[in-house]
């Protein structure tokens, strides 16, 4: 049981780190023709990154930014709650609060990544003729899977 809790804790920490990286890094879409990439915050070229996103004022991008920040906040809160519950909770109780908080994180990741996928992931809307998904976009969907799995495991687990 201790090994299972430790492994879930490690996956949860990895999820928090990946959420930070995927939200901060500006590599959500990468151009195939030029050395350029676009993220949630900036447009990056070989010369550096600038605040010249063509769709920076759109409400959809602001919603993606908000949901990704909320997912980080809920994931960190869930991690703190899990550590708190680990040391203060009675034996036999489940980690309901940490699991529920992480599932809220999962929901925020799902909404943010889905909005970005719908509005900006295809070539016609991101400003590039040919492009592919960057590592930030892929990390976001990995965090989506990890946060769901760990959230469900928290709800199922009992402290023994």
Automatic annotation (TrEMBL):
<feature type="transmembrane region" description="Helical">
    <location>
        <begin position="96"/>
        <end position="116"/>
    </location>
</feature>
<feature type="transmembrane region" description="Helical">
    <location>
        <begin position="63"/>
        <end position="84"/>
    </location>
</feature>
<dbReference type="GO" id="GO:0005886">
    <property type="term" value="C:plasma membrane"/>
</dbReference>
<dbReference type="Pfam" id="PF00822">
    <property type="entry name" value="PMP22_Claudin"/>
</dbReference>
<feature type="transmembrane region" description="Helical">
    <location>
        <begin position="136"/>
        <end position="157"/>
    </location>
</feature>
<keyword id="KW-1133">Transmembrane helix</keyword>
<dbReference type="InterPro" id="IPR003932">
    <property type="entry name" value="EMP_1"/>
</dbReference>
<protein>
    <recommendedName>
        <fullName>Epithelial membrane protein 1</fullName>
    </recommendedName>
</protein>
<feature type="transmembrane region" description="Helical">
    <location>
        <begin position="7"/>
        <end position="30"/>
    </location>
</feature>
<keyword id="KW-0472">Membrane</keyword>
<dbReference type="InterPro" id="IPR004031">
    <property type="entry name" value="PMP22/EMP/MP20/Claudin"/>
</dbReference>
<keyword id="KW-0812">Transmembrane</keyword>
<keyword id="KW-0325">Glycoprotein</keyword>
<comment type="similarity">
    <text>Belongs to the PMP-22/EMP/MP20 family.</text>
</comment>
<dbReference type="InterPro" id="IPR004032">
    <property type="entry name" value="PMP22_EMP_MP20"/>
</dbReference>
<dbReference type="InterPro" id="IPR050579">
    <property type="entry name" value="PMP-22/EMP/MP20-like"/>
</dbReference>
């Amino acid at each position: 049981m201790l090994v299972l809790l430790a492994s879930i804790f490690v996956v949860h920490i990895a999820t928090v780190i990946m959420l930070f990286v995927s939200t901060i890094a500006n590599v959500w879409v990468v151009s195939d023709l030029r050395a350029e990439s676009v993220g949630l915050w900036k447009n990056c070229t070989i010369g550096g990154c600038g605040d010249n996103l063509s769709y920076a004022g759109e409400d959809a991008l602001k919603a993606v930014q908000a949901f990704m920040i909320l997912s980080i906040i809920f994931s960190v809160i869930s991690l703190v709650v899990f550590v708190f519950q680990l040391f203060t909770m009675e034996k036999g109780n489940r980690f309901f609060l940490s699991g529920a908080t992480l599932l809220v994180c999962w929901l925020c990741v799902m909404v943010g990544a889905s909005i970005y996928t719908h509005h900006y992931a295809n070539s016609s809307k991101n400003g590039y003729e040919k492009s592919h998904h960057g590592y930030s976009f892929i990390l976001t969907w990995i965090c989506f899977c990890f946060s769901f799995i760990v959230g469900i495991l928290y709800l199922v687990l009992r402290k023994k």
